[in-house]
Task: structure prediction
Amino acid sequence: MSRYDSRTTIFSPEGRLYQIEYAMEAINQVGMGFGITTPEGVLLVSEKRLQSKLLDLEGSEKLYKIDGHVYCIVAGITADANTLVNEARLHAQQFRFKYSTPVPMENLVQHIADIKQSYTQFGGLRPYGVSMIFAGYEESLGWRLYQSDPSGNYGGWKAVAIGQNASTTNSIFRTDWTEDLDWEKATTLALKVVQKSLDTASLSPAKIELAMLKLVDGEPKLELVGDEALGEACEAYKVAAKENPDKE
Result:
């Protein structure tokens, strides 16, 4: 243990904030989540890690609705995530009430990032132990995808992952993501990422949840892919992988 790691506000001689690094390391131990943009929308995927089959969970395990045009995936401490999600929802509604228009995504993400960053400046507080991916649609900019981490850093991405094995997943995205992805190709890429990142030979709906954010009658809508359809996609991917092992 270093004498520089007891406060979030103390830099080490190397210029590091150890408490931030510890928070990010905690996030690297939890289930993975990622988003992939396509011309048709955003594909959102998260790993299922339910502790008990007795848990009564309604809806998604890691996917939250922020506003009509914004959703987010979280990875990290659930209690921290709930606090920030509630703050994001409040900010979105306050902006809509004040300006009679949906909150711009970067404005929303920056607001949450500012809160995270403030917890690295004042003593007696610990950083939020959660990373978040925000996905949404804006009429002037189209589909948008942002990621923020415990330090308050954020950025826009075409495809990005958080949680365990995020570096492996992002490496695959750098080589395999293309501008012309459709839903089928994006789903195939997502299943490839899940299989390689989780190092599993048995893809199944029990391990992942998949959602599509797309325009329906001109409005962004999130559609969770059911277990049956996801199971069919997993089986189709396995067959294609056996027939074309060189593409793996």
Observations:
- The chain has a mean pLDDT of 87.
- The longest strand covers residues 130-138.
- The helical segments are 18-27, 78-99, 105-118, 166-176, 183-198, 227-243.
